[in-house]
Inverse folding.
């Protein structure tokens, strides 16, 4: 990360060009020249240049914030473009922090942009956060959320935090005017297998857009001196119901590990260990099965070519099977297997029976299980291994490592990736 | 004296959706039966486990409370302000369970 940044100069007046540019907001008595001058002297650190960070940075740049720090370790991918609206098609493969800075510079060249091409790390986070006035958490994972929050408490900076998934979003302002921090609300991280990210759960771009814009609004209110409405409150947005809820949060907790009266967290820690999950992996690769119970996509392709009798079981949710599928696969969602859905099990039994007629019936019939990435398929194999042999005959369940996305990258490049 | 309570239990639960845990239904207007001791959140959680949770209660509960990462709101306020597990439910109360989101 670059060296210390010089402080933004204090200004006593706006230029004629600035007056013209910001005229529509200058005439608002709540902002006025005084608020605009405060904005011009404010610096905001944006952690994550994705679905939340893009709209947030766009509105902050347009409004004339003095300096924007842009942190992101990732590069622009095609599946980002649906919601990460600063990155265009031509930017694919480029670092997001630089892509965002380039797009913002076209919008407002008077703002200083400082792209940081790397993940926020415990080693460097505090030094970085100390150089900014306000921090916006636009990240996409649990360890980073704890890291950003702790860094803001230790550096004494307000944190405007947004998150979104599927058709819902949340916003809160932490460590602001004596209010609670993220840890006051969530002293313990959630168990890793209860956390869903946007890659797995999906998200509508306009939902991250709404929450990112709400974050930008609260940053602008804090920076210009209006003050945030969300200190001690959380906003919940349900896009399907079209409903916003304002929830009154607990006050700062005296026994909070970081902002409490006797804090045990006085320097930044290993947040990936604390949360049991990675801050940079897009997908968690589970390892539930021994390697003997798994095959690679190459191995599966070979036995498919050799016409080895088997059943291919696709356990993805219905909505994903409608996107793309292997035609010879039997589709039964993992959930139906977990619920021991009778109709689903009968379909499986029937297919196994049909396939067994092609064999000598002496050896167990292989059942290969596939999903998108190879996590759910392992869970399904475990369920299949428990099925009663008297009903299903002897079968040998294995999962296909890496799932259909590995099939698309290694075997069949025409198979859609999502 | 005790009366059945009508309580609105609203679950914002993700990870495979509320559908996985609560059969896809977000809003549950539940009528809690009469019982000798007053209904509190501790009892409500037990009742939910027995009556609403279809499977894998560990994704929702931990011990006698909710698991980390779920925020409980009573009438749109953090349950911490209301006495947490000891809050005594009133007729027409609104209880929300929200799993925090981390995506962006
Ligand atoms: Zn705290």
């Amino acid at each position: 990360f670059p060296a210390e940044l010089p402080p933004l100069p204090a200004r006593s007046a706006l230029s004629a060009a600035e007056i013209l540019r910001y005229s529509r907001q200058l005439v608002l008595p709540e902002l006025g020249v005084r608020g605009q001058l405060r904005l011009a002297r404010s610096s905001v650190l944006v952690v994550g240049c994705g679905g939340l960070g893009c709209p947030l940075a766009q509105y902050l740049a347009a409004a004339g914030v003095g300096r924007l720090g842009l942190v992101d370790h990732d590069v622009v991918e095609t599946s980002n473009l649906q919601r990460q609206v600063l990155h265009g098609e031509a930017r694919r493969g480029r670092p997001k922090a630089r892509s965002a800075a380039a797009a913002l510079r076209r919008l407002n060249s008077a703002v200083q942009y400082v792209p940081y091409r790397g993940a926020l790390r415990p080693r460097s986070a505090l030094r970085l956060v100390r150089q900014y006035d306000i921090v916006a958490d636009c990240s996409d994972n649990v360890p980073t959320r704890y890291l950003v929050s702790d860094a803001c408490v230790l550096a004494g900076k307000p944190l405007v935090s947004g998150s979104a998934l599927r058709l819902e979003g949340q916003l809160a302002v932490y460590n602001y005017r004596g209010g609670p921090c993220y840890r006051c609300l969530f002293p313990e991280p959630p168990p890793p297998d209860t956390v869903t990210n946007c890659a797995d759960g999906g998200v509508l771009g306009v939902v991250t857009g709404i929450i990112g814009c709400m974050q930008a609004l609260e940053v602008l209110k804090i920076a210009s001196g209006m003050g945030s409405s969300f200190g001690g409150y959380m906003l919940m947005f349900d896009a399907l119901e079209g409903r916003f809820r304002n929830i009154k949060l607990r006050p700062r907790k005296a026994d909070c590990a970081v902002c409490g009266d006797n804090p045990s967290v006085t320097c930044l820690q290993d947040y990936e260990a604390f949360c049991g999950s990675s801050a940079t992996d897009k997908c968690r690769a589970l390892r539930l099965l021994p390697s003997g119970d798994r095959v690679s996509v190459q191995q599966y392709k070979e036995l498919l070519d050799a016409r080895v009798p088997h059943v291919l079981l696709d356990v993805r949710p219905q909505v994903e099977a409608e996107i793309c599928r292997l035609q010879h696969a039997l589709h039964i969602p993992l959930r139906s297997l977990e619920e021991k859905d009778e109709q689903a099990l009968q379909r499986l039994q029937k297919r196994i029976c049909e396939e067994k007629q092609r064999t000598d019936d002496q050896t167990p019939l292989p059942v290969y299980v596939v999903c998108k990435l190879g996590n759910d398929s392992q869970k399904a194999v475990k369920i299949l291994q428990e099925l009663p042999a008297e009903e299903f005959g002897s079968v040998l369940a294995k999962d296909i490592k890496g799932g259909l996305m590995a099939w698309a990258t290694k075997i069949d490049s025409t198979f859609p990736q999502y | 004296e005790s009366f059945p309570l009508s309580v609105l239990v609203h679950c914002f639960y993700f990870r495979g959706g509320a559908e996985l845990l609560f059969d896809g239904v977000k809003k549950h207007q539940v009528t809690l039966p009469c019982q000798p001791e007053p209904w509190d959140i501790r009892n409500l959680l037990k009742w939910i486990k027995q009556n609403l949770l279809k499977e894998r209660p560990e994704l929702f509960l931990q011990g006698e409370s909710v698991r980390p990462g779920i925020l409980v709101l009573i009438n749109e306020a953090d349950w911490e302000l209301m006495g947490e597990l000891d809050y005594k439910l009133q007729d027409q109360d609104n209880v929300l369970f929200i799993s925090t989101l981390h995506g962006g």
